[in-house]
Amino acid sequence: MKRKLICIDTARCNGCGLCAGACHEGAIAIVDGKARLLREDYCDGLGDCLPACPTGAISFAEREAPAYDAAAVKRHLKTRPAQEAAAPQPSELTNWPVQLKLCAVNAPWLRDAELLIAADCTAFARGSFHRDYIRGRAVLIACPKLDGTDYSEKLADIFRAAAPKSITVTRMQVPCCGGLPYMVEKALAASGHSCPLTVITIAPDGSILNQERK
User: Fold this and answer.
1) Distance of alpha carbon 57 from alpha carbon 197, whole angstroms
2) Residue 113: which residues within 8 A CB-CB, separation 6 or more?
3) 44 and 140: one domain?
4) Is residue 190 a contact partner of residue 207, using CB atoms and an 8 Å limit?
5) Whether 32 and 78 share a structural domain
6) φ and ψ at residue 15, rounded to 5 degrees
7) Closest CA to 165 of 130, 203, 137
8) Within 10 A of 73 (CB to CB), how many other CB atoms are there?
9) Considering the chain, what percentage of its residues have pLDDT values greater than 90?
10) Is position 99 within any domain?
11) CA distances from 197 to 181, 193, 207, 211 (A)
């Protein structure tokens, strides 16, 4: 039968995993750093994943495909937690240190990197944080409230020296976390460096409240 299904452009996919989190059927998974449609009969064609994708890698296309199988999806969702619990979850971290306070401005792993600047609590709030955000990125973490430091000047020095390809900021849904994206934006302006900036707001239950491309 012909029906509407999602298509994933792997060239544009950055492996962030937001589409997998938005798919209520569990039809999407991150495989080798890219989003993949696991089975066509898992996709209901409603496209909840489309607005979650920050790169526009997901679109609709009408093609020959098996019908949506609600029973198969139910079985898949029921067994998935056990499968995930059984499988070891390796760390995606590739650099050290991660604390912004400790990181050298000229650290070689920062150069030309896809950079994640994360508020400390975000990794604890979202269970899939490593898969969704750390994979493929250099990581710096900070707490704008507890650190008691304005990192704008240090970040500006990092951006000048490292010229990151992109910057992703993850923050919690609390007012004090607003200082982190503010410092990053201020530092970018001061550094003279230009690159894509995405700010993601995470709720205490791990859900994504907002994703804003600056």
Assistant:
1) 17
2) 137, 138, 162, 164, 165
3) no
4) no
5) yes
6) 70, 20
7) 137
8) 19
9) 66
10) no
11) 9, 11, 20, 11
